[in-house]
Structure formats: C-alpha cells, structure tokens
Amino acid sequence: MNTCSYIKNARNDIPVDVLFELSEFFKFFGDTTRIRIIHLMLSGELSVNEIAEKLNLEQSVVSHQLRILRTANLVKPRREGRKMFYSLDDEHIGLIFNTGLTHILHKKGK
Amino acid sequence: MNTCSYIKNARNDIPVDVLFELSEFFKFFGDTTRIRIIHLMLSGELSVNEIAEKLNLEQSVVSHQLRILRTANLVKPRREGRKMFYSLDDEHIGLIFNTGLTHILHKKGK
DNA sequence: TGAAAATATGAATACTTGTTCATATATCAA
DNA sequence: TTGATATATGAACAAGTATTCATATTTTCA
Fold first, then answer.
1. pLDDT by residue (tens digit) across A78-107?
2. What totals of helices (H) and strands (E) does chain A contain, helices first?
3. Chain A from 49 to 68: CB within 8 A of any B CB
C-alpha cells in the first residue's frame, strides 16, 4: 500500500558524521552555478567552453565549480585532445535534482 | 531498456529563475544543524527545547534555524501553551533527505 | 500583577565561499 | 620550438551565513 520507499527504509540511527556528510553533499546542489551545470549535464557530457557559453559564464568560473563537482565525484572528466568533457558521474544526481525540482514546481503550482 | 525514470521525465526547458529557486531550496539541506533537525523531525513533531536537548545545541541556535526552515515552509509550527512544536511541512522533505542519504551510503559502501 | 518558563530576535563576530583577475599548465598544429 | 587553444589554479576580494550573547516576547501560574 505504501509506495514511498523512503518511509519503509527510514533509518532511525544515523550517526552524526553521516548527517554531516549528507549536508555537505546537499551543498553541492545549493549553488546556482552548479545547479545550472548539473542541469545541462542531464542531457549529456559537455566541454568546459560549451558550458561557459551556454550559461554565459566566464571560463574560470565554470572551471572552479567543475573542480568542486569533480572532487566530490559528482562529475567525471574525459579528455579529448585539448578539450575536457564532463558528465554526471552518478545516475543518482539526476534523481536528486528532479526530486527537488518536482517539489518546488509542486509548491509553485499551489 | 532505460530504467532511469529521471531521464524519461527530464525537463529540458527549465527557466533560470526556477533553477535559482532549486539551488536555494537545496541550501536548506546543506547545513549540519538543519539536516540534523530535519532528521529528528522524520520521526514526528518536537518542541524547540526537545530539539536543543537531543542535538546538544543552544536554544537560540535551534530557534534561528527553525525560523529559516519555517520561512521556507519546510517546517510548520504548532503552539501548545508556552511550547512550540515543529514538524515537517511537506512529505517530500523526507524523500529528498533519504534520496541523498541513500546516495552517500551507497558510495561509502564501495 | 509578578515571576518563571519557553521561544524569538537583534547585533556582532567569525567563518565559509563564489567570483574575479591574472597566470600557469597542457595539448595540438605548423 | 613557437603560437594558439583549452583548461586549471592561486590569491584577493566581496558577499553570505551560522553561531554567540544578550535581550525581548509570549504564555502560564501563583
């Protein structure tokens, strides 16, 4: 009857350090530049310059944020000549993105 | 073949201001104190002092963070005499919490 | 009304972090 | 090797924010 897996799987004994990691993880989604980069990557991999052009951002801004996302294993790099292509490392990233998106769109609809 | 629903439901035309709101939304989960408060509330409503005691935090810290969560409609207050009880406003909050938690636990398992 | 309990708030501080600018590194082509 | 292209990085600055401390509200009870 209950289709919400998050309730069935609710954990009651989460260590503080795991909660800390969880908050650190959500921080990566808590920046406009990064969320726009993640959004772009939902459609596939992109080079640094492609991202910068599509988002109308300076190259260094994109590069700085990509380093953060790469260090956190949210995106993975692939070199092709002089270009670096980045793509989402984990399929869960899109799930979290869309879960949040569904939430705010749902609230806006009211 | 593709079992990832987030790809099937991918939205390609998200306005920048919606992406901004989305990042602002995720910021609420990007703080240790708030994520611990949210975690506590997954089990039900709590008074301010209960939260402060369980998390070993000063009352003003909890109150400040509750104001942020309340303003963002993540939690809702209920007065009972001198006490204020707070609970999660939206059932999606728990879903997002657990989606992120599942993700980092999955990565730790590797 | 006065005191106590519970919560909220304001200002100050310290800390974090995103952007900017300049520059460095890396790769390719001639 | 030299120049051009693509990306990365470091330092400095500015803006945002979580915590602390003190104090203000609000409510209950004697």
1. 999 999 999 999 888 999 999 999 999 988
2. 6, 3
3. none
Largest CA distance in chain A: 54
Burial A3-12 (b: 16+ CB within 10 A, else e): eeebeeeeee
Integer angstrom CA distances of residue B109 from B64, B102, B104, B105:
35, 10, 9, 6
Which tokens sit at B22?
């989305």
| Beta-carbon separation of A97 and B25 below 8 A | no
Closest CA to A80 of A47, A37, A43, A41: A47
pLDDT tens readout for residues B32-51: 999 999 999 999 999 999 99
Q: Is A100 on the interface with B (CB under 8 A)?
A: yes
pLDDT per residue as tens digits for the range B97-108: 999 999 999 888
